[in-house]
Amino acid sequence: MFFRFSHRNWVKTTGKLLDSRVHSVRNSDVRWAYIVQFPGPKGQHTKLEVLEDSRTLGVAVSATVPRLVSPDGKKAVFDRSDPQINAAEVVKRHEKADEERFRRQLGD
């Protein structure tokens, strides 16, 4: 809830992930930082560093993913509410695909 409230005026956009690096490691927990490229507020290509969000999956270099960009174009975050990268939705899609594949195999 707080995430949506704090980003309510931010613009939803998609763009490409250009590179990644390990941002920090604590207690065997690795956190990644990504360079993202997206259209800026005036149409120019903007590149920013975006930190990994634990509530997202399917975020990898060369992927095109949804993100929220601040009105001034100086900050960006992954749009964790988008079903394309929302961890819970991704897991549900994978489970459904596995179930369908399993059922097809039983039907043969």
From TrEMBL:
<protein>
    <submittedName>
        <fullName>Uncharacterized protein</fullName>
    </submittedName>
</protein>
<feature type="region of interest" description="Disordered">
    <location>
        <begin position="89"/>
        <end position="108"/>
    </location>
</feature>
<feature type="compositionally biased region" description="Basic and acidic residues">
    <location>
        <begin position="90"/>
        <end position="108"/>
    </location>
</feature>
